[in-house]
Structure formats: structure tokens, C-alpha cells
Design a protein that fits this description.
Blueprint lengths: L4 H12 L4 H10 L1 H13 L8 H16 L1 H14 L8 H7 L21 E8 L9 E7 L6
Antiparallel strand pairs: 1-2
Helix pairs in contact: 2-3, 5-6
């Protein structure tokens, strides 16, 4: 079997170290057509000082979500704290069940429920039980000992 041109390009770029990891991950998830979209995204984002995509989320997307939906974020955080009382372990699935995200809101706003990070401790991962998440791993969280009410 002869490898495709796209595969050879990616292999060469990986060997030379010129393709960021998140572009390779996008290639693996979405295929060659998605690569052009991700490359355009990479060019549009200021990446200096940013280690990976999760840094982009924390530094740029999360603050915008909190500003755009302060009431929803407050409700998500209150729900998370109520569920995590007395040292219980929770995931975003439990919060979704009690506080669904409106359809016109970016679902990544759920990440704001577990901020500030100083209050929460990620203790593991498990597959999501929500159908929309397609069993994608979600973090298991617990309030830090000093923060349990």
C-alpha cells in the first residue's frame, strides 16, 4: 500500500518537529480536511507562552465564558459545591443532570464549574455517561479538604 501525500507530509513534519501536537491530534480525530481548519486556527491564536490547547482554554476561552454567562456560571458552581459537599466525588455529568446547559450556550462553560482550581482537586477520569459525550473521558473532581463546607 502506498501512503498518501498527506500522510507523508505529516510524517516528515513530525520527524522534523515542526507540527504542534494539537494539530496532529486533530488529524487523528478528524482526518485531512480538518487539518486545514486547525492550521488556520493555529495561525489566528497568539501561542507565545502557551504550552498546549488546555492553556488556551484557561487563558482565553474560560474568562469569556464567565463574562458572557455570569448567572449560569454561578449556578453551575453552586451546584458543583452542593454535590461535592462532605468530600463526595463528582463529574460534569452530575452537574449536567441537575443544571442543563441551554442550547444557545457553548457547552464548554461547564468547565467554569470547577474553577478556581485552587478549590478543586482532580482525582481521576471515567467515561461520561451522557449520550452526547459519546463516552469521552471526563474528570472526577473533589473539593480540596480545606474548602469542604
Amino acid at each position: 500500500m502506498i501512503p498518501s501525500v498527506e500522510f507523508l507530509w505529516i510524517a516528515a513534519a513530525v520527524f522534523l518537529g515542526s507540527v504542534p501536537a494539537f494539530i496532529l491530534a486533530a488529524w487523528q480525530r478528524r482526518g485531512p480536511r480538518y487539518l486545514n481548519q486547525v492550521s488556520a486556527l493555529e495561525q489566528s491564536i497568539e501561542t507565545e507562552g502557551i504550552e498546549d490547547v488546555s492553556d488556551i482554554y484557561r487563558q482565553e476561552v474560560l474568562p469569556l465564558q464567565v463574562k458572557a454567562h455570569p448567572d449560569l456560571v454561578a449556578k453551575l458552581r453552586a451546584t458543583a459545591r452542593a454535590l461535592a459537599g462532605a468530600g463526595a466525588e463528582i463529574t460534569s455529568d452530575e452537574i449536567h443532570a441537575r443544571c442543563p446547559i441551554p442550547p444557545n450556550v457553548d457547552p464548554r462553560v461547564m468547565g467554569a464549574a470547577f474553577h478556581p482550581k485552587e478549590d478543586w482537586e482532580r482525582i481521576g477520569w471515567r467515561p461520561s455517561k451522557r449520550r452526547e459525550s459519546h463516552h469521552r473521558p471526563v474528570a472526577i473532581w473533589r473539593l480540596r479538604k480545606a474548602k469542604v463546607a
